[in-house]
Amino acid sequence: MYPSLSLYIAGEFIEADRPLQEVLNPADGQVIGHLPHALPADLDRALDSAERAFEGWRRSSPVERSDLLRRAAALARERAPQIAHGITLDQGKPLAEALREVHSSAEHLEWHAEEARRIYGRVIPARQAEVRQTVTLEPVGVCAAFTPWNYPLSQAVKKVAAAIGAGCSLILKGAEESPSAVVALARLFHDAGLPPGVLNIVWGEPAQVSDYLIRSPIVRKVSFTGSVPVGKQLAALAGQYLKRTTFELGGHSPVLVFNDADVELAAQQLARFKVLNAGQVCISPTRFFVQEAVYERFLETFTSTLAGVRVGSGLEATSDMGPLVSQRRLHASLRLIEDARDRGAHVLLGGERLGPQGNFLAPTVLTELPVDAAILHEEPFAPIAPVIRFRDPAEAIRSANSLPFGLAAYVFTHSLRQANHATAALEAGMVGVNHFGIALPETPFGGIKDSGIGSEGGSETFDGYLVRKYVSQL
Length: 474
Ligand code: NAD
Prior knowledge:
Helices cover 38% and strands 21% of the residues. It has 13 helices and 20 strands. It binds nicotinamide-adenine-dinucleotide (NAD).
């Protein structure tokens, strides 16, 4: 039922004679597959094939690249049920969410197919009539990309579509926890007719693979989505070799619910958004600041909506929320709850593991938190909601901005003035007002401060994969 896993190098799927890593089903802890790790010779071959393929791919026409991305998108939609099933098995999210991930990945491919035809340069009027001054955009070269386990397909698609659409070749290491979607992605491009070597997939010990690839003189660009600490390590290494970078890192997204918000609606929507992918979403709301006049009403609706969330295996149609991806993440989440409890916080809902097997955590609501509770500083990446009462909007904005993160922020209010003031004052790369529509193919996705460098999606999506060339011709 679970697909076979492989490396993909120079257009070949490689499974045999490699060290194997077990892949576990987070819903029951059972081994569902074996992932082959790349040998050093495989990494060299991936680098070599990406370098050779770049020479041809950089000269492909935008229309050719666009057609290829479109064919990959069509195959993704065709194979959506199988790909989604693999995601639910190794990552844990409910099947309906996994299907949405596949279709949104297809949409990202389609968006990149459209935008790839619009990578324009410009002509700059010269000081002399005989001189012609042009600026062209060229692909940066071979890219190394590292993607996380929470949205194994869509996070990989963003990097692969941008690199391929820009005319780059790349080596991608997905997350070893949930690898099936990345292997499926390689199959999509293989079957769509991508020339061998333009896309290569490797697996291994993350730090060893990233270290090897980033140090290689063949690699010109590094793109990473994952946690802030790992992002900083990779940024330091990339800086040592002056590689171009894109980083999509963690967040700790504040939500400000003002007295004049439609509080019941906000509470219901926030509860449902909170349990999406069991809270393992980088833009998940993680610090809930609620103004005092609506605090009690908010808590009541928010907690009762969360209490109704059905937790279970993602394969069961009745499950609204699946398990956390790993035992490691479950223990990290329980540690945050314990820390809050020890410091005097009130556990209004949940707070414990569910069931004897699998990595299930009950949706959890924490209140009366002291400012030094770890969860108010560390990103929970779990279905845990710390709710904080505030009186003065300025104080809530100060608290919201007090962390080094700056990914997403949300505001719930019916006052235009309040909304304008908050969106201007919040230190975040993306702000949602009265809804969560901030992650679409046509809009730029990215953070400020420690949450990242650069953005993916939107008309900016190719920026990180292109370099400028200025030509002055007499
Ligand atoms: P982690 O720091 O242990 O690992 C994050 C990811 O980076 C994993 O997929 C891991 O395989 C990979 N990784 C680790 N070391 C690496 C290295 N040296 N080189 C290349 N890749 C490496 O974090 P975690 O506990 O797995 O995940 C939780 C944290 O990750 C969250 O707090 C969240 O901030 C972050 N995260 C962010 C996103 C996002 O979309 N921005 C996605 C997933 C995870």
